[in-house]
Design brief:
single chain, 351 residues, Lipocalin, 9-stranded antiparallel sheet, 8-stranded antiparallel sheet, 47% strand
Length: 351
């Protein structure tokens, strides 16, 4: 009986020590690779990150994970102003080389063990000189970029406590392009805005054997601009339906309107019908939203010819709609998701 109670306790904490005569249980901690090349990073201390191989791709920010019995609980958020989302996934397969889980909606995800060296981690310590206590909970925004301006990785983390404040940035080795150094920028945020930030990016070594750099932040002047997250009563969420949604980004890249062209947008009507413009041609389509999921069905449209850039952007827009499986609205911003990753964003426009 005592052994059974101990086993239940250690499983709930995900920190099991084998009992006499028992083999050590497998842990899902590690780096896991899916078919698209995205990597799920489950660190042994509960840190969690999602890394996309695509340039300019904006994704969900992983906050933490924990093992609870036969399930993994993931906590993540879409932006500093978005609520924390918690998803419980039942482990359906766990071997030294494979991890598979099933969500509460029945969807399944599978990963294989990522080859050694696929993911790197940069540890840093944030500090400031002012004698100022931080609020009980703050957010840390951190990004790594190359001299060319290419962003290697960006992370958003929730932190408690004071300084020095440790921060860890996960990044794909392939994104670093064999660079020996990178530029680190960071900020400590609250919903009212930035409290401290790096005045300019700090040069850091990417060598895994280099000690964690200490990064000094400067105080951000008060009342320097609008609040990062205006009060919720000032930010009513737009409705998914009967709203003119102007396309603003595709795969993290800004959307451009060709000279003399139409802006890409869509309007989803009640009853599962929708229409809009891909920036070149008008279109109509079907759509369905159920249990937090969103999907689009092919329709039709006009057949005008546009410039190469406009045609390419229009084609990407329509292909993106066909691959969408989820959505989220934060105030006047609509995000379309695929596998939890943001693939397109829109802004509500008053008509």
């Amino acid at each position: 009986m005592r052994h059974a109670l101990l086993a239940a306790l250690c499983l709930s904490l995900g920190l099991c020590v084998p009992l006499p005569g028992q083999a050590a249980p497998l842990s899902p901690a590690g780096d896991w690779l899916d078919e698209s090349g995205a990597v799920l990073c489950l660190d042994g201390d509960g840190a969690f990150a999602i890394l996309s191989p695509h340039e300019g791709s904006a994704g969900r920010f992983g906050l933490s994970w924990s093992r609870e019995g036969d399930s993994i609980v993931f906590r993540s958020m879409l932006s500093p102003c978005a609520p924390v989302d918690q998803a419980r996934m039942k482990i359906t397969e766990l071997t030294p080389t494979m991890l598979a889980v099933r969500g509460e909606d029945g969807r399944e995800w599978r990963w294989s063990k990522a080859p050694a060296g696929t993911v790197r981690r940069l540890e840093a310590s944030l500090m400031y000189l002012e004698r100022m206590a931080l609020p009980p909970e703050v957010m840390v925004s951190a990004a790594l970029s190359l001299d060319s301006g290419k962003v290697i990785s960006s992370e958003l983390q929730r932190k408690e406590g004071g300084i020095p404040m440790p921060v860890r940035i996960h990044y794909l080795a392939s994104r670093a392009e064999n660079a020996e150094t990178a530029n680190l920028s960071a900020a400590i945020l609250t919903r009212e805005g930035a409290l401290f930030s790096t005045p300019e990016a700090v040069d850091v070594q990417l060598d895994a054997g280099t000690p964690a750099p200490s990064v000094r932040l400067n105080r951000v002047a008060a009342n320097g601009g609008e609040a990062l997250c205006p009060p919720s009563e000032e930010r009513p969420s737009a409705s998914l339906t009967e709203t003119y949604w102007k396309l603003t980004t595709l795969a993290g890249s800004p959307v451009h309107v060709a000279e003399g062209g139409r802006e890409a947008h869509m309007v989803l009507h009640e009853g599962g019908k929708g229409n809009g413009s891909d920036g070149c041609n008008g279109f109509f389509m079907g759509w369905e939203s159920r249990d937090g999921k969103l999907s689009f069905q092919p329709g039709g449209g006009t057949l005008m010819m546009c410039g190469d850039a406009a045609m390419k952007q229009a084609r990407t827009f329509m292909e993106t709609l066909g691959a969408v499986d989820g959505w989220a609205i934060d105030g006047e911003e609509l995000s379309l998701l695929r596998g939890g990753e943001i693939v397109a964003t829109f802004r509500a426009v008053a008509l």
